[in-house]
Design brief:
Shape of chain B: globular
Shape of chain A: globular
Number of strands of chain A: 26
Strand content of chain B: under 5%
Helix content of chain B: over 70%
Number of helices of chain A: 17
Largest sheet of chain A: 5 strands, mixed
Distance between the termini of chain A: 66 Å
Oligomer: heterodimer
Structural class of chain A: alpha+beta
Radius of gyration of chain B: 27 Å
Distance between the termini of chain B: 15 Å
Number of strands of chain B: 0
Helix content of chain A: 25-40%
Order of helices and strands of chain B: HHHHHHHHHHHHHHHHH
Chain lengths: ~525, ~375
């Protein structure tokens, strides 16, 4: 009994000791690892699936690999024109079909192996390889007839048709190291996919799944003009953006994207502004409502104009985006040369809309508050993706305004994969989405009539003149001439209103003040040129 | 006992097959497929018509489009002809489509089962990594959280239930119950956010970290410091997971205790003049534990499942997020692996709880159970 008791006592004491230890440790745990001003902590909302340049399909991969890899050519931040990078210079033949790149010599991959024309050739071969999970890229390179290696530092791409984006595609090819991948292992699941080796200003250091990805400065970076001041970039994965903003405020993030509500409401305190600076810039893209032109309601362009007049876009930008956004009239980047600035915004005008609807024969004859024509009621389903509060609120605003004009909307929300499925099978009445695209955009996939069946022209827009303009523009290499064609295209689309174009929203970013030389270019921000102020 | 065990284990095979078969067909029937998601994701839905053909190639690469045996093709042809009178191959007859789909998926399912026998769960469609590797990464995190949760919930709820039962219909009893039900009804995403904003954000208090389960750079810490660091990170997520769980178990333990206390042997023990403590804890409490064994059946699978909401808010890369993201991306191999493992664990824990019954209650025998 006595022994038993003593044992119990011992046990109790050791439990107590343990508890005490835990308490001491947890309270003493504020041993925060001292912050290094030369480390930039960057917010990622989700982690990339892979860091293989060819098989990746998410936006996160590009944000990380952009620091690890160089392109053959790159866009100038300010002018958006191409300039040499891995390729010292390049030649384009007079027929605009062959592109010859002279690669810079003496460039080394991060593991020390030399960068040569073989790497470029290998990359192209892998993109076109059916066994490689890169279907999205293969489409871009389908018109290339031949790729040749003229010598170790010269590559020539030959196109079968002239295309103004050809230089961007071949020059922007994401060159991967042949000597690492070409070892007989499966390409799609190669270990290098999770520890990439590039030629760029930063080297990959570690990837802790779901937590963080760390890059270190490449001290031997070949391009001394772009040698960065920041020594380490730590990508922190924080899925919830409310949490991310708090982490930023706490000082554990240096740069994070903001939502409009955060920009306007939650980042205004003097304390915040003492530590951070907010930046905004517009990248190419726009939101829209697309009408399925195969449906009886949307076949008349007068009706589509009337519907556009029923969407209170000013109120939508004001209420849903806190005023952060610019109304657009067509399918181009509002700051691009392609955008036709002469077309006036379609303003919210229910009376004019009602008149147009009356004129086109959609009249409420049976007095139930909903217009009809030829026995068809003007009542359609509005398909929106689930999970984004924006679309639900947009649909609600539209529903109430449309109903006042005698048009009924049934809102249908669908999970993304199911939503894509409906778009691909063209099984929808109206849909709301956003396009994001690059500079020098080719709108062919979205508007050409050959893309109605299987491409991205899911609304079924079919216009002879538009087709001709789209085809011609593809072969025009002169920006100004192309701009003219696109201005006309913009006009046609504006006339036809296959989409009700809504607005384009800016990228909103908050960044720590300890960095200087932070510039906002048309292309966005360039972390490579940031300088670190060591501070007190 | 051995024959009973073997019988039970053998009976698990068809059950497991049934569960995986149903799961497989449900996810296949869900609209959307991983390839078009991938093709579309890259260009934000901007695909050229050409990409439809490329996507077709990818379906084959992923094993989502297989060759049907010629015999089956002939069968489809005959069947369609008999029903429609003719079989124009190009027309998408519903029956033709349905039969092809069924054949395709039957072959894919058998392939999956064949691999499963070798414990090969395949590779994820999302990143081409072995599914098992992905689960191995997420599982320890979820296990830690869930074990802590279960321990805390059980150690608080069961005594609380006993206490409530012994003081039934008093002010204290109702207060405890009211309080627990209030906790039960608070949504966890709200509580989690509130906890973060008030205790961790630095706007109010700065006691806890905002995210993850270990600090960056924790490698520099000693072993005990590391444990402390993890514990410090776990306080908020575990709190957010635990508070809703008290109500059910307390209620359960209270009602079983009430039943046991009414039994004759308890009255006898009290009549014998045993001290109240002994009556309650030795005679009543031990018997009260028997019904709790039923709950064991839910324990193992509960260990595996993570909470999407908690993991999302606290930035914890656990099983909940893995499963959720796999479903969104239609990553069939990962979904199937998680479903198969949870199904297996559920069956195992049902078996374990049946065994435990026999062990604690001499009135139940294997023979009696086996005959049923």
């Amino acid at each position: 009994m006595n022994i038993e008791h003593r044992k119990n006592m011992k046990k109790r004491i050791s439990i107590l000791k343990f508890l005490l230890l835990v308490v001491v440790l947890t309270t003493g745990c504020n041993i925060q690892v001292p912050k290094d001003p030369y480390t930039l902590v960057y917010h990622l909302g989700s982690e990339p699936d892979t860091l293989n340049r060819l098989t990746a399909t998410d936006a996160y991969e590009g944000r990380i690999n952009g620091f690890i890899f160089d392109g053959l050519i790159e866009r100038d931040n300010a002018t958006l024109e191409f300039k040499p990078k891995l390729a010292e210079n390049w030649e384009i033949s007079d027929d605009k079909l062959t592109f010859t790149f002279h690669l810079r010599q003496g460039i080394k991959w991060h593991d020390g192996a030399p960068f040569t024309a073989d790497d470029v050739l290998y990359t192209y071969k892998q993109i076109m390889n059916e066994k490689v999970d890169a279907p999205h890229l293969r489409v871009y390179y389908k018109d290339i007839k031949e790729v040749e290696k003229l010598d170790d530092y010269t590559v020539r791409f030959t196109y079968s048709i002239p295309y103004f984006k050809a230089l961007e595609f071949v020059g922007g090819i994401s060159v991967i190291p042949k000597h690492l991948f070409d070892d007989g292992q499966d390409f799609n699941s190669h270990p290098v996919n999770r520890a990439p080796i590039g030629t760029g200003p930063y080297k990959f250091k570690e990837w802790q799944t779901g937590k963080r990805i760390v890059l270190e400065r490449n001290e031997a970076y070949w391009d001394q003009t772009k040698f960065p001041d920041i020594k380490k970039i730590l990508f922190k994965i924080i899925p919830d953006d409310t949490v991310a903003l708090q982490v930023l405020k706490k000082g554990d993030l240096d740069i994070a994207s903001l939502r409009p509500i955060q920009w306007v409401r939650q980042t205004g305190s003097p304390q915040f502004n003492e530590q951070f600076m907010k930046l905004q810039y517009y990248t190419p893209g726009y939101r829209y409502v697309g009408w399925n032109l195969r449906r009886p309601f949307f076949q008349d362009k007068k009706v589509r104009r009337a519907l556009a007049q029923l969407i209170n876009r000013e109120a939508i930008v004001d209420k849903l985006e806190y005023g952060l956004g610019k109304l657009v009239t067509g399918p181009f980047w509002i700051f691009g040369y392609e955008y036709n600035q002469e077309l006036p915004n379609i303003t919210f005008n229910p009376e004019a809309a009602k008149k147009l609807l009356d004129e086109s024969g959609w009249i409420d004859r049976d007095g139930d508050g909903i217009r009809e024509k030829d026995g068809v009621k003007f009542s359609f389903t509005f398909l929106i993706p689930a999970g984004a509060a924006f679309y639900t609120r947009l649909a609600t605003i539209m529903k109430s305004d449309f109903e006042k004009a005698g048009v009924e909307i049934n809102i249908q929300t669908m999970e993304w994969a199911a939503f894509v499925n409906r778009l691909n099978s063209r099984d929808f009445d109206a849909v709301s989405l956003a396009w994001a695209f690059g500079f020098d955009e080719d709108p062919y996939q979205v508007w050409h009539s050959t893309q109605v069946e299987k491409g991205s022209n899911f609304v079924g827009f079919n216009n002879g003149e538009a087709d001709r303009l789209l085809e011609e523009a593809r072969t025009v290499f002169d920006k100004e001439k192309r701009a003219k064609l696109y201005h006309r295209l913009h006009e046609i689309i504006y006339e036809e209103q296959p989409y009700a174009f809504l607005y384009t929203g800016p990228a909103l970013v908050a960044r720590q003040r300890r960095f200087s030389n932070v510039n906002v270019y048309p292309a966005g921000i360039d972390i490579l040129e940031w300088k670190v102020d060591k501070g007190p | 006992m051995t024959s009973y065990l073997i019988k039970r284990l053998l009976a698990m095979i068809p059950t497991l097959l049934g569960i995986t078969l149903i799961t497989f067909f449900i996810i296949k029937l869900a609209p959307g497929d991983p390839i078009s998601l991938k093709v579309q994701a890259m260009q934000g839905l901007k695909a050229e018509a050409m990409s439809a053909q490329v996507a077709e190639e990818m379906l084959k690469l992923y094993g989502l489009k297989v060759e049907l045996p010629p015999k089956y093709e002939a069968f489809i042809h005959n069947f369609t002809t008999r029903i429609h009178g003719s079989d124009p191959q190009d027309k998408p007859f519903f029956i033709r489509k349905a039969l092809t789909w069924l054949g395709q998926n039957a072959i894919q399912y058998t392939t999956w089962i064949k691999k499963l026998v070798k414990l090969d769960f395949g590779r994820s469609f999302k990143d081409h990594r072995p599914v098992l590797d992905k689960i191995k990464e997420a599982l320890p995190i979820t296990l830690t959280l869930n074990i802590l949760e279960i321990i805390i919930v059980y150690f608080i709820s069961i005594p609380l239930g006993v206490y409530s039962a012994l003081h039934r219909e008093t002010f204290l009893d109702s207060t405890i119950m009211l309080f627990l039900f209030i906790l039960y009804s608070l949504p966890s995403f709200w509580v989690a956010t509130i906890l973060l904003m008030y205790l961790a954000s630095g706007d109010h208090l700065n006691w806890f970290p905002m995210l993850g389960i270990i600090s960056d750079g924790a490698d520099q810490l000693s072993f005990f410091e590391k444990i402390g660091n993890v514990a410090w990170h776990l306080v908020l997520p575990v709190t957010a997971m635990v508070y809703g769980g008290f109500a059910f178990l307390t209620r359960f333990s209270r009602s079983t205790m009430l039943e046991v206390v009414k039994q004759d042997f308890v009255r006898t023990a009290a009549a014998k003049g045993l001290p109240r403590r002994k009556v309650i804890w030795k005679h009543a409490f031990r018997n009260q534990l028997i019904p709790l064994i039923t709950l064991m059946g839910t324990l193992l699978p509960a260990l595996l499942g993570g909470s999407v909401i908690i993991e999302q808010i606290f930035s914890i890369p656990g099983m909940g997020k893995l499963a959720f993201e796999s479903v969104l991306a239609r990553d069939y191999p990962t979904i199937m692996a998680i479903a198969a493992i949870s199904a297996f664990l559920t069956l195992i824990s049902l078996l374990l709880s049946d065994l435990a019954y026999v062990w604690v209650d001499p009135r139940i025998t294997f023979e009696g159970r086996g005959k049923k």
